Amino acid sequence: MKKNQKIIIFISALVVLGLIGLLIFLSQGKGEENKISNEKEKQIEEKKEEEKKEIQEIKEETGASGKEDIYELQEETDGRKVLAIKPSIQYQVALAGAILRRVPSSLEEAQKIASENELTKQGIWLPKDDRDTFLKWLNEIGNTRYSTTDDGYLMVREKGVSPNEVDQKMDQILAKNRSVAVTISGVLMTVDSLTGEMMDNPFAQMDSYQPYDYVKDENRMVLSLSDNRKGKLTHHEILMSVISLLETE
Predict the structure, then answer these.
(1) Can you tell me whether residue 26 is helix, strand or coil?
(2) What pLDDT, in 10s, does the model give residues 165-180?
């Protein structure tokens, strides 16, 4: 009996020592992970500070007067760094402008409107004022019948017996993991890279043959179609140009 007790005590001691060793090992590993994590965070912060410094320097060189937090650095083909408005800011302003039908009164208003109307589904979304016109144009050149959901997303209402090239391309476009807000105003709201001020870009008025203008931020886009106020383009030409763009972007 005493012998068995000694064996049990010995085994228990080995288990305890093993657990202690495991805890020490895990603790060291955790400490190493924390060290690596802290180093990464430090590097990220240092990179941010370095970028802020570069942005400030380029602002002083170019006379750019927008707030620093709306800018990012982009590199030209010759390696020269330039200031550009963050794509997320351009997107928010363009989306808010498409909904408001005017230049937002402030960046805060633009961000608020964009947040309240954030596109949560993939596909093409149309503001209320543009739905009927876009559907009329699209249904004129496709054999498939298109409509919109209650919340404004383009949908197939009725498949055509013999889908044409437009329908086939639209199927591919609507299947992409991307959200596109489409308006037909001939104007795109943007942020000027020099002043940081929001402004309207009446591209259709300046160039009657330009079918669209757009801004893109990762997998989301705001696309403004020409309202063709001078009659230089046909609806077919405008839509086919837009379809070609959405196929490749």
Answers:
(1) helix
(2) 999 999 999 999 999 9
